[in-house]
Amino acid sequence: MNGASDTGTAARSARLPVGIVVRRAPGATRWAKWSWRVVALMPGAGPGGWTELRRDGEIVDYHAATVPLELHRAETDGYLVALNGTPPAVFVILRRPPGTIEARPEVVKITASAYDGQDHTDNGEDIVERVPMPEGLEAWIAEFCRTHHVEEAFVKRKRTPHHVEAREDGKGDARVRQAADVYRAPASLRAGQRGEGAE
Description:
This protein is an alpha+beta fold. It is 22% helix and 32% strand. The protein has four helices and seven strands.
């Protein structure tokens, strides 16, 4: 499977159109007449606009939309997490029109990054569908990761040595030029303290 790459950016990204198949079924509760969920992907599909693909009574499968699946070399960590899932999956982001839970959703995007999918889950506005990858799509993403993923070496942070004896307690503002500590006691007080010690 060959994904199109933007001219001059073959080393950084790749893009593939993916058709999203959404199934409408009778709602599971009395408050929603219909439920909608993503049931299949069609890599390399042409434009889609809620074209009916299959009908079985009240259950209808639609080619809801075709959206680009974009891969970027800086995000291979997220792709590898998705590839290592059981089963490997991509994430389709849906968004319902406000005001009803049964209205036909909008297909917002598709992502191969498990991290990106989690971000959309956390925003509280989107529906994130985890959809198993077809074999060809899995191979395409895996090849991109083999080409671009760079394992970052773990570097242990070195602690700065802390020498208590090197501290200068009571030192004044370093920006002020001074012959002695600016926090020294006034001369009159020092004289009084000397007098008290002499008694």
